Amino acid sequence: MDDTASIMRAKYPRSIVAGPYGHPFHAIAIILPIGAWVSASVFDVISVVGDDPGVFALGARILVALGLLGAVVAAVLGLIDWSAIPKGTPARATGLTHMVLNLIAMAIFTGSLLLRLDADGVPTLAMIASFVGLALLAASGWLGGKLAHTYGVRVATETTQAEGLESLP
């Protein structure tokens, strides 16, 4: 398969579950876990410095759990997209690194949640784990951006994009 054909293959969904051409659901699904985990970390800090630590600790625990549920959905959608990237390409290797970092982050957030389950406040180790998880997500997100913006994975072709621009008033 030549380079043009392999690039084109990675632009199309392997399954309709992954979203239609040019509109990958993975990019939408990542919003829930990232938002939940960032918010949980903010709640962690507020629980440590605020007047009512219990309510923010509970909120953080719930947000970490919601983030994990959302991450499972995002991971499945990302795996479907990754499986369409041709083997032996830089995009596939980048996607694998992106996936591994996200799985490690999920494991770290799972550990953070387990540490929180029977705690009254926010255990220091749980808070540290969450910040480490966020750092991994930042690195992984940069790689996800590289997949879309450098390699064009699941991004509509330039011709399709131009058609959309030409139809604007």
Description of the molecule:
This is DUF2231 domain-containing protein. Keywords: Membrane, Transmembrane, Transmembrane helix. InterPro entries: DUF2231_TM (IPR019251). Pfam families: DUF2231. It comes from Microbacterium oleivorans. This protein is mainly α and about 170 residues long. The chain has one domain. About 75% of the residues lie in helices and about 0% in strands. It contains seven helices and no strands. The chain has helices spanning about 5-10, 25-30, 30-50, 55-85, 90-115, 125-150, 160-165. Helix 3 runs antiparallel to helix 4. The mean pLDDT is about 90.
Segments where pLDDT lies below 50 for 5+ residues? none
SSE-based structural type: mainly alpha
% residues in beta strands: under 5%
Q: If helices are DSSP runs of H or I spanning 4 or more residues, what is the number of helices? A: 7
The succession of helices and strands, N to C, reads HHHHHHH
**Amount of helix:** over 70%
Please state the average pLDDT score: 88
Largest sheet: none
Topology, number of strands: 0
Shape: elongated
Q: Distance between the terminal alpha carbons, to the nearest Å?
A: 39 Å
- Tally the structural domains: 1
Instruction: Tell me the radius of gyration.
Output: 19 Å
